[in-house]
Amino acid sequence: MLIYDIQSELLHGEVGSQTFRVHAVSGGGRGSKVRPEGDQLLRSWSYGTKEDENRGVRGGIIPPGPYICRYSASHPKFHECIFLEQTVASLLVSDPSSATGVRLHSRDGFYIHARGPKGSDGCIVVFDEAERLRLNRAIRNANSATLLRVVNPFLPDDLSANRRTAIA
Q: ∠ CA 157-30-64 to the nearest 5 degrees?
């Protein structure tokens, strides 16, 4: 199982006999080769924000929950990457205003992929290319499905403000 901790920007765990501990980012354009820090606005940390190029809004972080990792040899945009198949639990978000306390979100199409000109709009971008390729091979060669659990979707306000100040 792999764990992606949004706050610490750490992807770690085991796939088969291999152990991983790599720096990875999600949302707000983070991981771009042009601007690695991504969008400095706090809204980029929201897992509910969808990309809207016409309005200049970047997609937020990957929604928390479990995903199943599926190897993809030749994605049209990301090339060799890992597709993150959503589970029911990764489609649900807490919503205290709803009668049930939860709602379905409308975001999908998440991957683990390399850095590029745009960066991430919810996908997980691994900075170390050699480690990303090693992860791809491990998932491709695994004897069973690899589970990814995405955790820690929110940053405390003071940490978010400090991060924005440090980036500016």
A: 60
Which element (helix H / strand E) includes 75?
Answer: strand 65-75
- Counting every residue written for the chain, the total comes to 168
Between 2.60.40, 2.40.440, 3.40.190, 3.10.150, what CATH number should domain 2-162 receive? Answer: 2.40.440
pTM > 0.90: yes or no:
no
Q: Which two tokens stand for residue 56?
A: 């200049």
Q: Which of 78, 57, 55, 62 is nearest to 7 (CA)?
A: 62
Residues sharing a CB contact under 8 Å with residue 124, sequence separation 6 or more, in sequence order: 4, 11, 24, 25, 26, 62, 84, 110, 111, 112, 113
- Where are the domains positioned within the chain? 2-162
Backbone angles phi, psi at 50, to 5 degrees: -100, 150
Residues 9-60 have pLDDT tens digits of: 999 999 999 999 999 999 888 888 887 677 665 445 666 677 777 777 778 8
Give the model confidence (pLDDT) of 97-143 as tens digits: 888 888 787 788 999 999 998 888 889 999 999 999 999 999 999 99
